[in-house]
Amino acid sequence: MNSLNSLRPLVKSGAGLISRNYAFKSDLKIKWVRPEKIPCYKPAKSGDLVPLPALKGGELMKDFRQSNELDSADDSVKNLFTLEHNRRREMLEVFKDEMVKRVQRHELDYGSIEAKLGLMTAQIRSLQEVMEKFPRQSAAKVHLKELIDKRKRFLRYLRRWDYRRFEYILEKLDLVYKPYPAEFHWITRKDSLRKLTDIHCDEIKTTRLQSYRQLLESQQLDFLAKKLENLQFIRKEQQECKVPVTVTPEQIQAVKKQYEELKEKRKVLEEKAAEEQD
Description:
Distance between the termini: 66 Å
Number of helices: 10
Shape: elongated
């Protein structure tokens, strides 16, 4: 009868159903927001730390840098052969050459795996700049994804067989190796909330343990003083009653030493706290 009376306030009028009023989503302190999806061709996913450099307007094109005729030509003629007055492809060729020279083994090395990685990195950063301006270019997007996957395969090969060269390539080309995950899983609200709940429970457990530890440490000095007093009393009573003594002087001395050390430590901490407040 008492159990039925306790359930009466929970019964809806006219419906005959018991409604709960606990563990609502609004009462939880855990909030989950679906993470923003980052396309695979973005630098955050591809691992490129540095974007394509700015246009070097005053430099001559690659094929006309050693021209003797341009040395004695007029400035208006020289401007026609600078990078700023020509196609973007000319600037890209200069950047490709710079990236290859960073990692090539010798001056004529354009076929090693290092040179190929430098060339692919220049092309990837160029296409990433194009995708930022024109995100609907499907052909450029497909080509960019293929290049990123190919570079990852090359880096994975280097990482497996020559790790020192792998680290050298990453440092010279300003890259971060981001392999594909071993197991794919969908990001769902249920799994994410379960992980967030575990983290929240661990934080609560940690804070409560820390507070309890602080409470015990605050009582430790009084506990040692009382323990020392009790040990001395027990030893004295056993000696007076002429029964086997179970408390040795070494035990009393060890507790006394621990008490003195803790008292001195507390005194030093209090002095430091007072100095910081001043």
